[in-house]
Write a structure and sequence with these properties.
The protein is α/β, with parallel strands linked by helices. It has two domains: about 190 residues, Rossmann fold (3-Layer(aba) Sandwich), CATH 3.40.50; about 160 residues, 3-Layer(aba) Sandwich (Rossmann fold). A six-stranded parallel sheet has the order 3-2-1-4-5-6, sandwiched between helices. A six-stranded parallel sheet has the order 9-8-7-10-11-12, sandwiched between helices. The chain is globular, with a radius of gyration of 21 Å. The N and C termini lie far apart (about 50 Å).
């Protein structure tokens, strides 16, 4: 099931659209009518948050989760998620329990009752279909353009593509609070900045103790952008040239490459040829957080690791190609180098690239990256 839910897979997109919409129509509308007639009320204060993908989404969801936790202090907040955000969410003190979106987790959730269900997915119809079967007083989610997923909810708000994804998550939480007559006059920007770097939200903070061989000065390169993220990646030859410059400017600095997966291993091996050290597939998630938090400087494409780095450490350079910065820019700081090409950005929903050749990110020059660090 989780493979089907891979939001970057062409097959999953096809299935989600051409099977998801008819299924929503067949299931969600009768489900809402049944609920209106017979009700599905519960006296408990259980809250279910749904966000299957991905790491970056989980990071920019933190302000909304903090807002939810602070206003429902006595409630149990369950988080239904996927493997890409599991390690992050499991370590958040804002959530009582993480439940994997697999057969076992689905069976568990279907047996429960909730006061409130919030589906934070932006386009995935599978979670909306699942939500239609849940026993809950209130089901709230996004009405996203041409996605039709809002049919499953009792309440909905528009997903605004002119605003940051994190702000959309915040607005969805605000709408849920208003239904409970909890009114706040808080500004998202203020709350967001207060959240950034707040390590108290983590259950375990062992990641603050990094090994001696990774103590600063430490320069972190994160060249990969995950599965099917090659259109957002700076060319490997450019990364090699950057390492050569960094070694000449900072001869005592440790230059490391991070990432997870077989493809990232190949990238790291290429960069080891010019003197970088590979940490790919060798760090726990907490260890990865520690490296980002203690780094002297971080270089990354627009990917989940970038959002985590922005939360933990503002000494960050983001190489941005097709991603829309209004929706997917770093929330907590960092220096963004945007592609100079007019065709960029072209990416809204995470997989709707405008071309098959990442010319936009290739147009970012080595000198721009060097200058972002204050080097000339």
């Amino acid at each position: 099931m989780l493979k089907y839910l891979d939001r970057k897979s062409g097959f999953s997109k096809f299935m989600d659209r051409y099977m998801g919409i008819p299924l929503l129509l067949a299931i969600a509308i009768p489900s809402r009518f049944f609920s209106m007639l017979f009700g599905q009320g519960t006296a408990n204060e259980n809250i279910l948050v749904i966000k299957i993908s991905a790491l970056g989404d989980g990071v920019v969801l933190i302000p909304a989760l903090q807002h939810l936790r602070s206003n429902f202090g006595k409630s149990k907040i369950y988080f239904l998620g996927g493997p890409s955000n599991q390690k992050l969410i499991e370590n958040l003190a804002l959530v009582n329990e993480f439940i994997s979106f697999n057969n076992q987790g689905i069976r568990k959730i279907l047996k429960m009752k909730f006061r409130l269900v919030i589906d934070f997915e932006q386009w995935m119809r599978a979670t909306a279909i699942f939500t239609a079967f849940l026993r809950a007083n209130t089901k709230i989610g996004f009405k996203s353009k041409d996605q039709c997923r809002h049919w499953a909810f009792t309440h909905k708000i528009k997903f605004d593509t002119s605003r940051h994804t994190g702000e959309n998550f915040w607005n969805l939480t605000q709408a849920a609070l208003k239904m409970r007559k909890i009114i706040h006059h808080l500004n998202f920007s203020q709350v967001c900045q207060a959240a950034g770097g707040n390590l108290e939200i983590f259950k375990k903070r062992d990641f603050l103790q990094v090994p001696k061989d990774l103590m600063p000065p430490l320069l972190v390169l994160h060249p990969g952008c995950g599965d099917h993220g090659e259109f957002r990646e700076w060319p490997i030859e450019n990364w090699k040239e950057l390492i050569v410059v960094l070694k000449s400017k900072y001869p005592k600095a440790k230059i490391v490459v991070t990432g997870q997966g077989r493809y990232e291993e190949l990238l790291a091996r290429a960069l080891e040829e010019v003197g970088a050290r590979s940490l790919v597939n060798s760090l726990s998630f907490e260890g990865f957080m520690g490296v980002l938090q203690s780094a002297t400087w971080i270089f990354s494409g627009n990917t989940g690791a970038m959002h985590l780095a922005s939360f933990l450490n503002k000494n960050l350079t983001v190489l941005n190609g097709p991603s829309d910065l209004k929706m997917w820019g770093p929330l907590w700081g960092g220096k963004v180098i945007a592609s100079p090409l007019e065709c960029a950005p072209c990416l809204t929903w995470g997989s709707d690239y405008g071309c098959s050749d990442p010319v936009c990110v290739k147009a970012i020059s080595l000198q721009q990256v060097i200058n972002s660090m204050g080097l000339h």
